[in-house]
Amino acid sequence: MSRKPKKGYFVKGQFVAEGSELDLQLKAELKGTQDASRTELKRESDELQDLGKELLTLRTDLFNRLGLPDKLADALAEARRITNFEGKRRQMQYVGKLMRKLEPAVVQAVRDALDEQRSGSAKEKLALHQAEQWRDRLIAQDGAQAEWIDLYPDTDIQQLRALIRQARKDAPTAHEATVAQSQGQAPRKSRAYRELFALVRAQISGIAAEEEDAQDGTEDGDD
C-alpha cells in the first residue's frame, strides 16, 4: 500500500511538511512579522491622527498654504465645530482616515507648517521676555536709555523718556508694594508702565521681523 504524500510546501528548495517542527517555526516567524507589520501600521495611523489634531490649531495662513484636499479641510472644519467629546472623537478618527490618504510630500508639508508655527511661538515668547527685561531696566537704570537708543535708534526718544519718567513717578512705593503683597495682590501697574512695555516690544519685534526678512532674502538669493 502506497503512502499518502505528505502535505507541505517548499521554502528555498526545501520541502516543509505541514505540522513539522520546521513548519511550526516558520509559521511562528511569519506571525511575528505580521504582528510587527500590524503594530507599525497602527503606530503610523495613530501618528497621522495626532497630526490631524494638531492641524486644528494651525494658523489660518499656514493652513491655507497647505492646499489640503477639500474632504480633509471640510472634515477638520467640522471637527472644530463639534464640542461633544464622543462626536469629536469619531470625527477625528475620520480625519485620521483621510490623513492616511495623503501623499508623503503633503504629510511632510503639514509637519513643516506645524514646526514653523511652533518656531514662531518660541520667537514671540523670546521677544516678550526681552521686552519685559528692557522695560524694567529702562525704569530702574538711567544708563539703560543710552544703550537702548544705540540698539534701536528709530525709537521715538521723546516718547520713550516721557514714558520712563511717568512710569517712575507712578511706581508704587515700597510700603504700597509690601501691602499689596501681604494681601496676595500684585502691585498696581500704571498706564505709562504698560505703554512703555508696548513701545519696547514693538521695537524688538520690528527689528526681529526685519532681520528674518533679510535672512529669507539671502536664502532666496542663494537658490
Short account of what is shown:
The protein has 223 residues and is mainly alpha-helical. It has helices at residues 21-55, 60-66, 70-81, 85-99, 104-140, 143-151, 157-170, 174-182, 191-222; strands spanning 8-11, 14-17.
Q: Can you put this structure into words, describing what you see?
A:
By secondary structure, this protein is mainly α. It has 2 domains: 16-102, Orthogonal Bundle (Diphtheria Toxin Repressor, domain 2), CATH 1.10.60.30; 122-214, Diphtheria Toxin Repressor, domain 2 (Orthogonal Bundle). It contains 9 helices and 2 strands; from the N terminus they run E-E-H-H-H-H-H-H-H-H-H. A two-stranded antiparallel sheet has the order 1-2. Strand 1 (8-11) and strand 2 form a beta hairpin. Helix 3 (70-81) runs antiparallel to helix 4 (85-99). The longest helix is centred in the middle third of the chain and has 37 residues, at 104-140. It is elongated and about 100 Å long.
Strand and helix map with partners:
Layout: E1 8-11, E2 14-17, H1 21-55, H2 60-66, H3 70-81, H4 85-99, H5 104-140, H6 143-151, H7 157-170, H8 174-182, H9 191-222
Antiparallel strand pairs: 1-2
Helix pairs in contact: 1-4, 1-5, 3-4, 5-6, 5-9, 7-9
CATH homologous superfamily assignment of the largest domain: PSPTO4464-like domains
First and last CA, distance? 82 Å
The outline comes out as elongated
Helical content band:
over 70%
User: Structural class of the helix and strand makeup?
Assistant: mainly alpha
